[in-house]
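Supplementary notes for students who missed Thursday's class. We covered one full example, reproduced here. Read the sequence, then the structure, then the short commentary at the end.
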Amino acid sequence: MPIVVDASGALVAADRCDMATLLVNQQVTLYDGRQVTVKSSFQRLKEAAEQMTLAAYSAQCGVPVAQIQQLAETFTRYGRKAAVITHGCMMAGNGFYNAWATMMLNVLIGNMSLSGGVFLGGGQFNGVSDGSRYNLVSFPGQVKPKGLNIARSNTAYETSDEYREKVAAGVSPWPAKAP
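Structure (token representation):
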């Protein structure tokens, strides 16, 4: 059952909370009396993003700081009325991460699954078929896929080799490594 922190700071079931707190970093007392720190996923995302400065991100991607700031201001100016969709960038070898990062912009402005926002509905890659030049559906020496889907979809992490190996070694299976 997903748990969130409500406006009063109490832990409650997500389906019983009209408005949760996004940035959570607090101590919680467990039933056995131990104190643990809990953080919301949004808090962890914020902390991860703040591990580098805007200047460092700029140097890494080759886009000037001023242009990054201008794009951010333009994109967020419309609140939830803005939307981003992606197509071509997902066909690269690292395309899942490109598409995921692009779609996360919708999450950050709060328009996922809202009227006027973005709804995820799937679709499929149309590049696997018998073509006029190459048969990409089946060919001699074809290696069949195995393991987890790179998008980590349609299966639970707990069924993966990585999870089982970490548990068997007596270490925490969390966080999972990116494929």
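Commentary. The CA atoms of residues 162 and 168 lie 10 Å apart. Strands lie at 3-5, 11-13, 25-29, 35-39. If anything here is unclear, bring it to office hours.
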